[in-house]
Amino acid sequence: MSPSSSPYRAALAIARRLRDAGHQAFFAGGCVRDLLLGLAPKDFDVATSATPEQIVALFPKTFTVGAHFGVVLVVSEQDESGGVCQSVTEEEQINNVSGPREIATEVATFRNDGAYSDGRRPDAVRYTTDPREDVLRRDFTINGMLLDPIAFDSTGAPAHTTLDFVDGRQDLAARVIRAIGDPNLRFAEDKLRMLRAVRFAARLDFQIDAATAAAIRRHAAEIAQVSAERIRDELTRILTEGGARRGFELLFDLGLLAQVLPEAVRLRGVAQPPEFHPEGDVWTHTMLMLEKLGAESPSLLPLREASRTVRSTLAWAALLHDIGKPATFQPPKPAVPGSNEKPDRIRFNGHVEAGVRIAETILARLRFSGDDTSQILSLVANHMRFGDVLQMKQSTLKRFLRLSHFDEHLALHRLDALSAHGDLACYNFARAHFEVEPTPDLRPAPLLTGRDLIAAGYRPSPQFKPMLALAEDAQLEGSITTPEQALALVQAAYPRPSTSPNLNPHK
Questions:
Q1: How far apart are CA 188 and CA 101, in angstroms?
Q2: At a CB cut-off of 8 Å and minimum separation 6, what does 351 contact?
Q3: Are 413 and 450 in contact (CB under 8 A)?
Q4: Separation CA 47–CA 146 (nearest Å)
Q5: Radius of gyration of the chain (CA)
Q6: How many helices and strands, by DSSP H and E, does the chain display?
Q7: Measured between alpha carbons, how far is 389 from 386 in angstroms, rounded to an integer?
Q8: Angle 244-253/228-240 helices, nearest 10 degrees?
Q9: Per residue in 355-378, pLDDT tens?
Q10: What HEC string does 91-148 produce?
Q11: Beta strands at 62-66 and 71-78: parallel, antiparallel or unpaired
Q12: pLDDT digits (tens, 9 = 90+) for 130-154
């Protein structure tokens, strides 16, 4: 059966129009790979013998995202009959504004690339009408196949409508990631391909061809030439698209992890107290958490986007939650002969605070957004608090439960516990309270404000913060319910200046 998705129908209509105009047109890249694997492609790219100028002439609503490299974005809308009409202005395309039925299809001209002096883009390209030349410049054999969309739409059989100049189908069957041609040249052209090899191997559970792996090891240090943003995005895909544990084990084995995340390498060999972590060292614990990121569970399902990938902030927090342990490792103190002291254990005093500082450095280096940085750091900073939930006062518990995206905090703790001692008592307790606690009870309208304190005769000062916190604590505990009770409570603990010059009852 051929796909029926809107991206497929849009790409098929584009290919038909190109063919009708006398040009060659094929589906190319990952969509062909996925169709051959029986997977549903997320999008469909078109490769054609038409030049960018010819593409633009055929499709009036276009955006030349990479005309220098022969790439044009054709923006279209799928109507009920399956036809394609142009519907988006160039300004909207630039600002990524699109409605639910608008589809952007990448259409690229067959080309032969020149030298890659910057390790990312070719210095010059030469357009060609030979699809084989176009394929030979691509990264991996499993991504280097072309598919006749017209024949495929008629037969629904990708295996019989594929053009394969690089033995990509053979490598798919063998479950191998292999660079096209000389892997040293492919990685010299675009250093990011080394991380992409890891991503495909992890997500598809394939092996990396020996020559390709050797070339990655040889060129691993050159990944530093790639921009932080591109590295961040590729690492995020490894973490969220499936096979995260295998991905990071491959990154280590191939020498890439030491280049892009040396802090994570330091987790290896850092022992943990076996009574809490029978699974082993910090690296093993972290890898178990990454392995469970893809597990179907009631707590993780809400954290999946439409693409079924795990939320990136949760995934990065799983990787970084114990990143402060190597710096705070304390071996057990030797037992004193003849003493009755209990045997000491390995400790990581202050590892959360150290972890937040290290994680902040990593996230800044990789140029994470402010919102993502804030959430990941919050997850790292609060991951140990679950151990206290059974003893928390109601006010403390409610403040904990109202942390932004608390569902991610729950999911992180669940991963943490299942990858260590396996005790979910604290998780179950916190989740039960989170699910039944109405939002207004977690963050009720304050009974007392700074204006109320001023009206009551207090002068504005830093002391207002603990005064208002005292009132909110009592409100969250349920011991007060009215503004009058809140003010009386504060007045008893913090007498007005007219009755006492000292506003701090503890001095």
A1: 39
A2: 322, 324, 325, 327, 328
A3: no
A4: 8
A5: 29
A6: 26, 12
A7: 5
A8: 130
A9: 999 999 999 999 999 999 999 999
A10: HHHHCCCCCCCEEEEEEEECEEECCCCCCCCCCCEEECCCHHHHHHCCCEHHHCCEEC
A11: antiparallel
A12: 999 999 999 999 999 999 999 999 9
- Rounded to a whole number, what is the largest CA-CA distance in the chain? 93
Strands 146-147 and 111-113, by their bridges, are: unpaired
CA distance 462 to 445: 21
Helix (H, G, I), strand (E, B) or coil at 62: strand
Give, as one character, the DSSP assignment of residue 222.
G
Q: Cα–Cα distance between 324 and 322 in angstroms, integer?
A: 5
- Here the tokens at position 276 are 């809490």
pLDDT band per the 50, 70, 90 thresholds, residue 219: very high
Give which of 251, 246, 239, 241 is closest to 213, Cα–Cα: 251
Average pLDDT for residues 310-318, to the nearest whole number? 95
pLDDT of residue 441: 85
How far is 418 from 422, CA to CA, in rounded Å?
4
pLDDT digits (tens, 9 = 90+) for 103-121: 999 999 999 876 666 656 6
Question: 487-496 contacts: CB < 8 A, separation 24 or more?
Answer: 487/448, 487/452, 487/456, 490/448, 490/453, 491/456, 493/467, 494/458, 494/463, 494/467, 494/470, 496/456, 496/457, 496/458
Q: Tell me the per-residue pLDDT of 38-85, one tens digit each, with 9 for 90 and over.
A: 999 989 999 999 999 999 999 989 998 865 678 999 998 765 554 555
Locate tokens 């699974």: which residue? 279
Report how far apart the first and last C-alpha atoms of the chain are (Å, whole number). 78
Predicted confidence (pLDDT) at residue 293 exceeds the cutoff of 50 = yes
Strands 62-66 and 25-28: unpaired
- The residue behind tokens 């990581």 is 348
Structure tokens, 231: 């590295």
Tell me, what's the pLDDT at 310? 85
Is the model's pLDDT at 481 over the cut of 80? yes
- Please, are residues 183 and 215 in contact by the beta-carbon 8 Å criterion? yes
Confidence of residue 338 (pLDDT cuts 50, 70, 90): confident
Please give the model's pTM, rounded to 2 decimal places.
0.87
Q: What is the pLDDT of residue 303?
A: 52
Number of Cβ atoms within 10 Å of the Cβ of 387: 11
Angle made by CA atoms 440, 443, 447, in degrees to the nearest 5: 95
Q: Is 428 left (phi over 0), alpha (psi -120 to 50) or beta?
A: alpha
